[in-house]
Design a protein that fits this description.
By secondary structure, the chain is of the alpha/beta class. It folds into two domains: about 5-155, 3-Layer(aba) Sandwich (Alpha/beta knot); about 170-230, Trp Operon Repressor, Chain A (Orthogonal Bundle). The chain is built from seven helices and ten strands. Helix 3 (about 95-105) crosses helix 5. The longest helix has 19 residues, at about 200-220. Bound molecules: S-adenosyl-L-homocysteine.
Length: about 240
C-alpha cells in the first residue's frame, strides 16, 4: 500500500515542485507514494471564487473562510478517512524526526496549506486539524512547509532510500547530531582526513564517530542531550 498525500492549497501549481525530483520524485514516479494537490478555490461558491474575508474583531489581513475550507476537506478526506489531517501553522508543534517517523507509518496525510493571516479557528476544531510547524519563523504560506514535511516522510518510506541503513546513523535518529564525514582526496588544501578513519579498525572508527557526535551535540545542541536523557522514575518520559 502506497502512502497517499492530498494537499489542499490555493497554489496547486506549486506541486510537486521539488518533490518531483531526486529521491522523492523517483518514489513518486514508481508509485511508492502519491501526491494530489487540490485547489481550495474550487470549493468557493460565488462567482469570484472567494476563499477569504476580513478578520472578525478587526485587524490587518484576511482570514480563510471555514465553510469553503471545510467543503474542500470533506471532499478529499471524509469522516471515514483514517489519514491524519495536518494544518501547516507557525502555532503548531515543531515537526521532529520522531513525528516524521510516525507519519511515515500512516496510510498518508491530508495537508492544509494556510495563506493570509491564517484560517478560521472553527474549522481547525471541527475537522480535527493537527497544527504542525516547521520552525519558529513565519512563511508566506503553508506550501513550502508541506513540502518540507512530505520530503522528510517520503525518504523514510520502504525502498526509497538507497542504502538500507543510511537512515539509522543520521542526525536526530539516535538523539545526536551526525559525526563529521570525509571522502577522497586524503589531502586537500593541506587538510587531512582524521587518521582513525583510514585505520581499517571498524571498532575504533565507530567509537571515534560516537565521541564526535556526542561532542558536536553537546556544543551545538545541548537541548537534544537533555531531551533524550532518561527521566528517573518516569517510563513514559
Ligand atoms: N498570522 C499567522 C501567520 C500566517 S503565515 C501567525 O502569526 O501565526 C500564512 C500561512 O503560512 C500560515 O497559515 C501557515 O499555513 C503557513 N506558515 C507560516 N509559517 C509557518 C511555519 N513556521 N510552519 C508551518 N507553516 C507555516
Amino acid at each position: 500500500m502506497s502512502f497517499r498525500a492530498t494537499v489542499l492549497t490555493l497554489y496547486p501549481q506549486m506541486f510537486p515542485g521539488p518533490l518531483g525530483i531526486s529521491l522523492a520524485g523517483r518514489a513518486l514516479a514508481d508509485g511508492t507514494w502519491s501526491l494530489d494537490p487540490v485547489d481550495i478555490r474550487d470549493f468557493a461558491n460565488d462567482r469570484h471564487r472567494t476563499v477569504d474575508d476580513t478578520p472578525a474583531g478587526g485587524g490587518p489581513g484576511m482570514v480563510m473562510r471555514a465553510d469553503v475550507l471545510a467543503r474542500a476537506i470533506d471532499a478529499v478526506s471524509p469522516a471515514s478517512d483514517t489519514r491524519p489531517r495536518l494544518l501547516m501553522s507557525p502555532r503548531g508543534k515543531p515537526l521532529s524526526q520522531s513525528d516524521v517517523r510516525h507519519y511515515a507509518e500512516t496510510p498518508g496525510l491530508t495537508i492544509v496549506c494556510g495563506r493570509f493571516e491564517g484560517i478560521d479557528e472553527r474549522v481547525i476544531e471541527a475537522r480535527n486539524l493537527i497544527e504542525v510547524s516547521i520552525g519558529d519563523y513565519v512563511l508566506s504560506g503553508g506550501e513550502i512547509a508541506a513540502m518540507v514535511t512530505l520530503d522528510a516522510i517520503v525518504r523514510l518510506l520502504p525502498g526509497v532510500m538507497g542504502a538500507a541503513d543510511s537512515a539509522h546513523e543520521e542526525s536526530f535518529e539516535d538523539g545526536l547530531l551526525e559525526y563529521p564525514q570525509y571522502t577522497r582526496p586524503a589531502q586537500w588544501e593541506g587538510r587531512e582526513i582524521p587518521p582513525v578513519l583510514l585505520s581499517g579498525d571498524h571498532g575504533k572508527v565507530a567509537r571515534w564517530r560516537r565521541a564526535q557526535a556526542e561532542a558536536l551535540t553537546r556544543r551545538r545542541r545541548p537541548d537534544l542531550l537533555s531531551a533524550t536523557a532518561p527521566q528517573p522514575g518516569n517510563k513514559e518520559g
